[in-house]
Amino acid sequence: MRMMSTSEADHEIEIEKKFAVNGKTSSVLKSYGFDVVQNEEFVDWYFDLAEPKFCLEDCWFRYREKKVKMMNNWGWRGAWQVKRGQKGTRENDGITTYEEFQGKVAKQLILDMLSTATEKDAKEVECTSSTDATPNSPYSTHDIPHLEGGEKLVPFARIETLRTSWKATTNSDDKFSGLKVDIDKADSGYIIGEVESLLSDGLSSQTDVENEKAKIRQFVDMMMLDSECNTKATTIGKLEFVLMKERPNLYHDCVKAGVINEPK
Q: What is the model's pTM?
């Protein structure tokens, strides 16, 4: 089994679990031998047909714009991404397993999937997609990312995030090697932690996936205990939080479709 970073591959398996964050989280991570390796700012755009189809099948089209320094100036650099779930992707304890595609591979996958949209889907898009350019649109003040050949796509969520990433150092416990911890603060003020493991899709077995799940569960259980967080508190992702607040009908459709676990 070989661990890979997102810069090394266009197609990976992402295993992830969210966890609650409090004032003790940073000190607990340090006590485990984790150090901050990166601070970054990015904007995520989520797209689907005007009448949502792909997200209800647990396939998420995302365009991520990262703030990067180019020479002496700051600018934004973006790339298309796809997160695609399969049967059993989302477990009752919140751990998820997704195929994740990046860059050119992601763009081609999106176009291939759009080509399967029915004539009915296309007509619905023609009737409604233009509303996203109106002054009443929540995105009217932003430059909406465009995918050539993907004119059927319309945005349904936009999230600005400040992220602090942590990784284990050489002095940390080997049982947590390969894990990455992100602490995210969204523009809504919502703060959430997530721990993930990335595996090469072509080089990893189901046993590898299950081993990483067990490692992540153990890590989160320790984090919750040592940071004195409420272990029974329900944690949701940034996207779920936004959908609950801004797109409640779509949120409930996703819950009904089984692609989002409703908080208990």
A: 0.88
